[in-house]
Amino acid sequence: MRFVKLAAATAALAAAGLLAACGGSSGSHAGVRLINASAGYASLDLTVNNTSIDTGVAFGSAGSYGSVDVSATTTQFLSSGTAVYTTTPTLTGGNNYALIAYGWQGGLSYKTLQENQTAPTSGNGELLVLNLAPDAGTLDTYLVPVNTACNATTLSTGTAIAVGVVGGGGSGYNTTTSGSYGVCIVGTGNTADVRLTIPSITLASASVNTLIITPTSGGVLVNGIFVVQGGSATPFYTSSARVRVVGSVPGTSATTPSTISGLLTSGSNSVNLLGTSSAVMPTIGNYQTVPSGAGAVVNLSVNGTALSTLTMPTMAPGGDYTLLVTGAPGATTTAILTDDNRLPLTAGYAKIRLVNGSSDPNASLSMSLDFTTIASNILPGRASAFTQVPSDTTGSTSEITVLTPTSTTNGYAFDKSGLSIVSQGVYNVYMLANSGTTFAQYDYMQGIIVRER
Question: For residue 45, with 0-12 CB atoms within 10 Å meaning exposed, 13-18 middle and 19 or more buried, which class applies?
């Protein structure tokens, strides 16, 4: 099996360890199959030179090989009969290939995996890791004993099989002793940043295998597809989501800020959502990884007083969520926001939204970037949709202004100039209660700009 990086020179691939000796006999035809690693398409078809190769290939699965004339390779990936991506790959007669479709709806791409890698010696297996979840950033992959819980402690004795694999890139083949292993995928250099736990895969003796990392709706956690060269594809889906708390309750006096704490319980799992016993507001907590699905309950306390127990909605595997706590001390409100931390589909652009943490029911807010409105009349406890905007190309020149419906403090609630909006950045602009006041109205709020990605 061989990983061919699109639009890259053969010499560069060889240097990366991604090229291998070709197998199969020479000829004018090659074997081609489709692997659907696109989270944006539940099912895909593949045609080459207008000939159907695979139909109805579900996400996380592989089709069967079809014979292709290497002199005519116009290839289309189709969804419900409509072409969503067209390309002309370079194929060599006598070889087998998997065309791996990946990316979100409207942003499909592909990689070519040559499936003629020479098998390792008996008692060994080979594993290639492909990071086809660009949203998730650079990742490390560890092999651990079967059914190992992935965390910093267990990974201190794990084996890193692939380190620093960037989005869209591959690790090269790594040879290890055959057998069954658990797999832990983490953010590069941070074994506490667990993105996916796979209980068990089997590297058979003298086998060649590929682990394809795929994205989730939140953008940070990932899924995986384990592919045996020339054989089956097995999907592994995350069973986790991520939740954080954003607290925007003003102080009990001008000198006494409010505090917040929170515990999420799902079955036998309990997670401290603030990472500490309590946090001073305003606060933007870190995401905490929690079990996905239904039935999770959250117990929040403000200034030591417990709020009503909150039942979370069904959390999608891989989803990101924010609990936005607003209101006055003793009269708080909690809103649940769904976060989209996926990167923009287009290079040269960023994503930005407004989060209104005011307790004033009349405090709707609007936001402009460089004098162009990108969010309008966002009510308290709500967030705008993300807007895709051009990134800065000439330095720190952008200006964000949050506007109120009436003229209060110079006509705006928040203004920040000299900003650099970076390509592929994901931003939230939070309007939160100022800890030095007992009010959370226009004149008593502060703006906090957070680059999430």
Answer: buried
**No. of H helices and E strands in the chain?**
2, 37
Work out the end-to-end distance of the chain between its first and last CA atoms, rounded to an integer number of angstroms. Answer: 33
Show the tokens assigned to 370. Answer: 């460089």
Give residue 440's pLDDT: 45
> Is the distance from CB of 380 to CB of 429 less than 8 angstroms?
no
The pLDDT tens digits of the residues spanning 184-226 come to 999 999 999 999 999 999 999 999 999 999 999 999 999 999 9
Question: Which of 96, 115, 111, 31 has the alpha carbon at shortest distance from 69?
Answer: 31
> What's the CA gap between 296 and 280, in Å, rounded?
25
**What's the pLDDT score for residue 360?**
78
User: Is 5 within the bounds of a domain?
Assistant: no
* Residues whose CB is less than 8 angstroms from the CB of residue 449 and which lie 6 or more positions away in sequence, other chains included: 400, 416, 419, 427, 428, 429, 430
Task: Please report how many Cα atoms fall inside a 13 Å half-sphere around the Cα of residue 270, on the Cβ side.
Answer: 4
Rounded CA-CA distance 259/290 in Å is: 23
Cβ contact 84:100 at 8 Å: no
6 domain residue, yes or no: no
User: Does a structural domain hold residue 14?
Assistant: no
381-392 pLDDT tens trace: 999 999 999 998
CATH assignment of the domain containing 209: 2.60.40
Q: 184 and 137, same structural domain?
A: yes
Last residue in a domain, options 81, 96, 116: 116
Q: Is residue 7 assigned to a domain?
A: no
- 134 lies in the same domain as 234: yes
Does residue 380 have a cis bond before it (omega within 30 degrees)?
no
What distance in Å separates the CA atoms of residue 34 and residue 212, rounded to the nearest whole number?
13
Do residue 326 and residue 364 come from a single domain? no
- Collect all residues with Cβ–Cβ distance below 8 Å to 249 and sequence separation of at least 6: 258, 260, 281, 302, 325, 326, 327, 328, 329, 332, 359, 433, 440
The residues of the chain scoring below 50 in pLDDT are 1-26, 407, 440-442
Under the phi-then-psi rule, with left for phi > 0, alpha for psi from -120 to 50, and beta for the rest, what region is 191?
Answer: alpha
CA distances from 252 to 39, 258, 262, 330 (A): 47, 6, 19, 10
Whether residues 30 and 103 share a domain: the answer is yes
The total of structural domains in the chain comes to: 4
Q: What's the domain range around 332?
A: 239-339
DSSP-derived 3-state class of residue 151: coil
